[in-house]
Amino acid sequence: MLRKINLIRILIIYIALLNSVIGCKTTESTMTVDHSPIIASLDLVNVIDDKVKVELKVTNLTKDTVSYYLPKIVPGTYQNNNYGKYIEDFKAYDNQGNELLTQKLGDNHWTINNSKRLHSITYLVNDTFDTEGTHQIFSPTGTNILSNKNFVLNLYAFVGYFDKMKEKKYNLFIKHPLDMEASTSLSEFLPKEPQAGAKYDTDLFIFKRYADLADHPIMYSIPDKVTFNINEIEILLSVYSPNKLHRAAQLMPQMERVVRAQKNFLGPINTTKKYSVLLYLSSAKNDDAKGFGALEHNTSTVVVLPESIPLEKLNESLTDVVSHEFFHIVTPLSIHSEEIHDFDYNTPKMSEHLWLYEGTTEYFSLLFQINQALISKEDFFERILEKIHNSKVFDDTMSFTEMSKNILQDPYLENYRNVYEKGALISMCIDIIMREKSNGAYGIVDLIRGLSARFGSEKPFKDAELIEIIKEVSYPEVADFLESHVVNNTPIDYGFYLEKAGLIYNTIEIPSAYFIHEQEPFIKGSESNKKVVFTVGAERNNFLKNVGIKSGDFLLGINNKEYTIKNIYDLFSDSSKWNIGDDIIFIIERDQNILKLTSKVIAPTVEKIVLKQNPDATKKQITILKSWIND
To answer: What is the SS3 assignment for 567?
Structure first.
């Protein structure tokens, strides 16, 4: 977040610091300049071999050796990205320009000797978009360096932190071409017009601590952006479309409609005065981004989508993304644990409550649409069923708090996507419980408002205390539900909760293909050792269940034909030639043992869940349903 200081004082500080960082002519001043912030500069003008030069200046260190880090992981991501891998030519200097001895101790860690003399460090940063075939960094969490055209600056990949100095203030100077502008939720400070003939300008951004710098992405490009105001929030939509196929003005009407509905849904919850959507449209070429989606930040989101999709589909995709990401202004901006507030970027402790940060956010992205009449109740019910259906692909007995704490390692990491499926359903059940106990007067939005008022962006909660606090601000039954189904491993009976709202929930058998359901089987493994594996979806296919297939089984062959990732599509054409009653033999690998499973071909079916209103619902059930979906 931006530091608020007196304008005259910041002008004086800016002029003095600009001289030391950018190299302008010295300006005399009788004022004492506060050198306590770490001063960082990025040069987007003199790009070197597709790399950006970074310089950091720090003074008054008291230790003989100091450590400098780039993040291994950042909030909102659940894998180790090791941004230090993209740093080259790391050097440290004293104030006379003499080079100090440095050592690299890992992907993200450097030590600097004689650090009492340290004045500056410099290095080059390579981007991730143009090398996505060589790493697993999801595009919206990465970086782009496209000289004179576009820079996607997730700042944590450019600027690091010194050991035990993450709470220090940062002044960030960014030198950029004159025709390129910053798009961000920050407010750049521009004290003067560029001189005649100048080829660049310099923006200054001020952060009160490293976490704020890491949480504020910036996109530089030739401007194509629109702003609009909704209930005292200024919304910025900035678009980079390399071939000018899409414009911000074209996307604004749908964006405004969606965000207005979201803000109306949240009511008096106000956690930010500005929100930015930074949309990068990729050419999808070999040297461009291919990971389509978004990364949330407290007051912005970085979105990467393909440029080639039609405007209508782009609007739909952007709506889906923003419907989720915008609600992160509540969780985790105003409600978060100590693990998030004091995030350790290299040896992180993960919070227990992913169900709150991602699950509740995802549920809100569904609920607001029915609440604000953007979709029909039939559409809403279908999306709830889709969540239930998708959640069953994952381990339904896994403790959500245990998964959250250990999300960076297997088997928890492979179940991460369930936070968007079962996590949303956890919030749905809490919503229904609260409406039942209050006769429709209160729901989960009221719970989130209460927690937001109790904490806020500067006051984190303790993980172990959250459920007890929820009990205080809602109902004991909500805490009981969380203990049973989130802390412990009891699967949720969704029919039990949906029945409270007068809905009939059951399953029916419908015809299916042998393998097409759930895209069974999946492909899993490393690039060098990928295997064909069945997921839990196989156990809901009566044919595969009859054969004896279990989730986690690796498929090796069927009826004397071997199947690998190279001929996996043969599986679908071959199965179309099977006849009911034929003998069939599956060769599978289970727990490192080779097994032969023999059976008969039967007509394949799968379970389909149906959800509909009960015509005989009670008055209380009708009240709960109406308050829930605003019917």
So the answer is: coil
- Is the pLDDT at 25 greater than 60? The verdict is no
Q: What does the pLDDT average to over 315-321?
A: 90
Torsion of CA 204, 208, 209, 213, to 10 degrees: -40
Class of domain 513-603: mainly beta
- For 224-329, CATH gives 1.10.390.10
Q: How many residues does the chain have?
A: 631
Q: What is the pLDDT of residue 308?
A: 94
Q: Residue 507 — very low, low, confident or very high, per pLDDT cuts 50/70/90?
A: confident
Mean pLDDT, to the nearest integer, of 311-315? 94
466-to-10, 123, 335, 442 alpha-carbon distances in Å: 41, 42, 10, 19
Enumerate the H helices of 455-531 as residue ranges.
466-473, 476-482, 494-500
List, for residues 227-286, the tens digit of each pLDDT value. Answer: 999 888 899 999 999 999 999 999 999 999 999 999 889 887 766 789 999 999 999 888
Which of 112, 115, 62, 116 is closest to 90 using CA atoms? 112
- Could you state, in order of their start, the residue ranges of all structural domains in the chain? 7-219, 224-329, 333-505+614-631, 513-603
What would the DSSP string read from start to end of 352-408? Answer: S-HIIIIIIHHHHHHHHHHHTTSS-HHHHHHHHHHHHHHHTTS-TTS-HHHHHHTTT
Beta bridge partners of 57: 39, 120
The distance of Cα 548 from the centroid of its chain, to the nearest Å, equals: 37
Sign of the torsion formed by the C-alpha atoms of 127, 129, 135 and 140: positive
Residues 6 or more apart in contact with residue 593 via CB below 8 angstroms: none
Pick the CATH number of 7-219 from 2.60.40.1120, 2.60.130.10, 2.60.40.3650, 2.60.40.1220: 2.60.40.3650
Per the CB < 8 A criterion, the answer to whether 172 and 155 are in contact is yes
CA–CA distance, 613 with 622 (Å, rounded to integer) = 10
d(CA 289, CA 291): 6
DSSP string, 400-451: HHHHHHTTTSTTTGGGGGGGTTHHHHHHHHHHHHHHHHTTTS--HHHHHHHH
Q: Which tens digits make up the pLDDT trace of 394-435? A: 889 999 999 999 998 888 888 989 999 999 999 999 999 999
The CA-based diameter of the chain, rounded to the nearest angstrom, is 95
Q: What is the pLDDT of residue 521?
A: 61
Domain 333-505+614-631 has CATH 1.10.390.10: yes
Which H or E element spans position 628?
helix 619-629
Question: Is pLDDT of 21 > 60?
Answer: no
Distance CA 600, CA 484 (A): 41
Gap between the Cα atoms of 202 and 195, Å rounded: 12
Q: Does the fold of domain 333-505+614-631 match that of domain 224-329?
A: yes
183 close to 276: Cβ distance less than 8 angstroms? yes
d(CA 155, CA 78): 18
DSSP β-ladder status, 300-306 and 274-282: parallel
Residue type, 353: H
- Strand ranges across the sheet with 38-48: 99-100, 87-94, 118-126, 51-57, 38-48, 170-177, 200-207
Question: How far is CA 217 from its chain centroid?
Answer: 13
Q: Which pLDDT value is given to residue 214?
A: 94
